[in-house]
Design a protein that fits this description.
Elements lengths: L21 E7 L7 H14 L4 E7 L11 H4 L3 E2 L5 E2 L2 H9 L8 E3 H14 L9 H20 L3 E6 L9 H14 L4 E8 L2 E2 L4 E2 L2 H12 L6 E6 L5 H11 L6 E5 L7 H7 L2 H8 L10 H11 L3 E9 L9 H14 L1 E9 L8 H6 L4 E4 L8 H13 L4 E4 L1 H13 L7 E2 L9 E5 L14 E9 L4 H6 L3 E8 L1 E3 L4 H6 L3 E5 L6 E5 L8 E4 L14 H11 L2
Parallel strand pairs: 1-6, 1-7, 2-5, 2-6, 7-10, 10-11, 12-13, 12-14, 14-15, 15-23, 16-17
Antiparallel strand pairs: 3-4, 8-9, 17-20, 18-19, 18-21, 21-22, 22-23
Helix pairs in contact: 1-3, 1-9, 4-5, 5-6, 12-18, 14-15
The structure holds glutamine.
Length: 553
């Protein structure tokens, strides 16, 4: 019989009950770049699949306020959120795996934490007190984690601590997540440690000692991991898992194996099949809900068994670090999923195309060309040569941000007869500054967070490739740039056959340029970064269009 007592009838005016938020903290041991980001993202996908609201957060111990001022060679891509935060590339993994849009609050760095604490100290918030790492810095970190959980309405917050256990700058973060167990209750907190299990010698002998040592470092700061995610080239035997569990005080079912895979998108499936999600649900006392990973398994199958293949040249300045354009690479793979094609990425250092004739030799035979974002003058002649090659040889082309600016420069120089046209970023004295600073950027000396950042609206012109691809007139895309197409040259370039197919709603800023399909099968470039909105289950229309065009090329 239904309970009709007053207590059982919800009072519509009662304040919403606070959710009992669960926290999963992901740390890394032995070496950096061990896959904490993808582990966190995969776990997020699996919990979302079980019907939970998942919030993803990255705690980065470096002192920089954000990733905007970091070198892509060292740190990989700078990811941008809807609200214009310049963040670590792991946020890109979170968005792509979990299929959520993150905000600024998803990224916490030592720089932001200390900045906030120092501001409070100056304001007098701690008047009379001595401001210390514990409790003030750790308190600020915890506040950012719990506040994030509350504001996103999450059932589970997955917070990844950047760096490796044992790093000096990581200590306040480890101390904060240690305290979280006491604050939130042991039943609401789970520690996942991602670690490397090297195999050495001619027989690929598995070595557990580095992991034992990194768990020891964690224990020194008072954290006992609940789960070990073991990165390994060779599968672990039950005995080896048991040994790891014994030395690290983790139960056998909590030793999860993460062997190398052909695609990162197979990792959620690998975890699910080892009972990782069930374990998390059990340990965190989450309700048992059904799992249906069939869509995700379908994506993995399409990646692994495509029926077609294309080769896409990706031209950029930072190609030595595979992570520098990670979202572009992933977007191309997503487009491959949509087109049932394997997309071979041919990373090309633009500087190698600088010499006359180099682009023709190096790019001959590719099915499509992408020219990447970038800054400064190095490798610019090579980028321009790549655009020219794609334009003249009718090879499908997509230019992103600097790639679009290079397409404008190339067209101005070689078609619109504006010899020496340039962006003022490269040549401040050019006779034809077709790309230039917007007035609101004059006089800005600070480099951090001063670009045009985040989501901005764009209106697409009728009868354009852009409109055909998007299928709607009004779109929003993420930005990260300082320079813009110079409106003084729009008329001249239009007369020369260039099409400005996307602009800000007031038409003042150029967002997309293209060539008519009567002269080129697929030539389009954007001031914004479409790669930040592509998902494995939802390829971005521009990348999908490029790969389709490459297939029919
Ligand atoms: N350097 C260019 C600008 O600032 C392009 C930036 C980019 O490619 N992200 O406008």
């Amino acid at each position: 019989m239904p309970d009709t007592s007053p207590a059982a009838i919800p009072d519509p005016d009662a304040p919403a009950k606070e959710k009992n938020v669960k926290y999963i903290f992901v740390t890394g041991g032995v070496v950096s770049s061990i896959g904490k980001g993808i582990t966190s993202a995969a776990l997020g996908r699996l919990l979302r699949n079980r019907g939970f609201e998942v919030a993803m957060q990255k705690l980065d111990p470096y002192i920089n306020v954000d990733a905007g001022t970091m070198n892509p060679y060292q740190h990989g891509e700078c990811f941008v959120t809807d609200d214009g935060a310049e963040t670590d590339l792991d946020l890109g993994h979170y968005e792509r795996f979990v299929d959520i849009n993150l905000s600024r609050a998803a990224s916490v760095t030592t720089g932001t934490v200390y900045g906030a604490v120092i501001q409070k100290e100056r304001r007098g918030d701690y008047l009379g007190g001595t401001v210390q790492v514990i409790p003030h810095i750790t308190g600020e970190i915890k506040e950012r984690i719990t506040q994030y959980g509350r504001s996103t309405g999450a059932d589970v917050v997955i917070a990844e601590v950047g760096g490796t256990v044992g790093d000096i700058e990581g200590l306040p973060f480890l101390e904060a997540i240690r305290q979280m167990k006491r604050d939130a209750g042991a039943e609401n907190v789970l520690y996942v440690h991602v670690t490397l299990i090297p195999s050495v010698g001619p027989w690929n002998e598995i070595k557990t000692k580095p992991t034992q040592h990194s768990v020891m470092r964690l224990r020194e700061v008072g954290i006992a991991p609940d789960v070990l995610v073991c990165r390994t080239k060779v599968a672990l035997t039950t005995e080896q898992k048991d040994k790891l569990g014994l030395f690290c005080d983790v139960s056998l079912d909590a030793v999860i194996e993460a062997t190398d895979t052909d695609t990162i998108y197979a990792i959620p499936v690998m975890f699910e099949d080892q009972g990782f999600t069930d374990l998390v649900v059990r340990r965190l006392h989450l309700p048992e809900t059904p799992s249906n990973l069939s869509d995700w398994r379908g994506i993995v199958k399409r990646i692994l068994e495509p029926s077609k293949a294309v080769r896409v040249a990706v031209v950029g300045k930072y190609t030595e670090n595979g992570d520098a354009y990670i979202s572009i690479g992933e977007s191309l793979k997503h487009a491959g999923i949509a087109s049932d094609a394997r997309v071979h990425l041919d990373w090309i250092d633009s500087e190698t195309l600088d010499e006359p004739g180099a682009a023709e030799t190096r790019l001959s035979g590719v099915d499509a060309v992408v020219v990447c974002p970038g800054f400064g003058g190095r490798g610019v002649p090579g980028k321009i040569a790549a655009v020219r090659y794609a334009r003249e040889n009718k090879v499908p082309f997509l230019g992103v941000c600097y790639g679009m600016q290079m397409a404008v420069v190339e067209y101005a120089r070689h078609v619109a007869h504006l010899a020496g046209a340039n962006t003022t970023e490269v040549d401040a004295d050019t006779a034809y500054p077709v790309i230039a600073l917007m007035p609101d950027q004059y006089g800005i000396a600070d480099k951090g967070a001063t670009m045009r950042l985040g989501l901005w609206p764009c209106t697409l012109a009728p009868e354009t490739l852009a409109l055909k691809l998007y299928g709607k007139t009004n779109i929003e895309e993420r930005h990260r740039h300082r320079y813009e197409v110079n409106n003084d040259y729009r008329e001249q370039l239009t007369k020369a056959g260039f099409v400005f197919s996307g602009t800000s709603p007031d038409h003042k800023l150029v967002e997309i340029i293209e060539l008519p399909q009567s002269v080129h099968p697929f030539f389009i470039a954007t001031q914004f970064h479409p790669e930040f909105l592509s998902r494995p289950n939802r390829a971005h229309p521009l990348f999908a269009g490029l790969v389709e065009a490459a297939l029919s090329n």
